Amino acid sequence: MAAGMCVYLMIRRKKTTIFTDAKETTNVSELKKIIQGITKVSPDSQRLYKDDRVMEDNRCLADYGLISTTARAQSPASLSLTYRMENGEFESIDITPLSSPPELPDVMKGQEATHDTSAN
């Protein structure tokens, strides 16, 4: 049944990353309630973005191309989250880049080069 297919989401704001799943038919307002359960921030003080585009509360996730074939557990779809500030405005999107793994030690680089040579 295609209507009930799960989509996997990675919702990011500053240094926070939330992983959750929902149905393709889930409204954005319902997703905000899920986020509220985690962050304790009310849905009316949240704004979600897909590709820097504001997601409207009455639209479902599939309307934004968030479907089971594009938002899989192994590669969740990425959304941005902002909160309403005290002045009533929403903050701008601010996502801290994920850290990079440290450089490989020289010992391991040698092994990697060996594998690359044998692959040719």
> Which architecture name of the domain at 6-83 does CATH use?
Roll
- How much β-strand is present in the residues? 25-35%
**Alpha carbon gap, first and last residue:** 45 Å
Question: Going by CATH, what is the homologous superfamily of the domain at 6-83?
Answer: Phosphatidylinositol 3-kinase Catalytic Subunit, Chain A, domain 1
Annotated CATH topology of the domain at 6-83: Ubiquitin-like (UB roll)
Report the C-alpha radius of gyration, rounded. 19 Å
- Distinct helical segment count: 2
Subcellular location: Nucleus
GO cellular component, one term: VCB complex
Family: Belongs to the Elongin B family.
Organism: Megafenestra aurita
Could you characterize what this model shows?
The protein is an alpha+beta fold and 120 residues long. The chain has a domain at 6-83: Phosphatidylinositol 3-kinase Catalytic Subunit, Chain A, domain 1 (Ubiquitin-like (UB roll)), CATH 3.10.20. It is built from two helices and five strands; from the N terminus they run ββαβββα. A five-stranded mixed β-sheet has the order 2-1-5-3-4, covered by helices on one side. A hairpin with a 2-residue loop joins strand 3 and strand 4. The longest helix is centred in the C-terminal third of the chain and has 14 residues, at 106-119. This is Elongin-B. Pfam families: ubiquitin. Keywords: Acetylation, Nucleus, Phosphoprotein, Transcription, Transcription regulation, Ubl conjugation pathway.
Which features characterize this protein?
Ubiquitin-like (UB roll); Ubiquitin-like_domsf; ELOB; alpha+beta; Ubiquitin-like_dom; 5-stranded mixed β-sheet; 120 residues; 2 helices; Elongin-B; single chain; transcription regulation
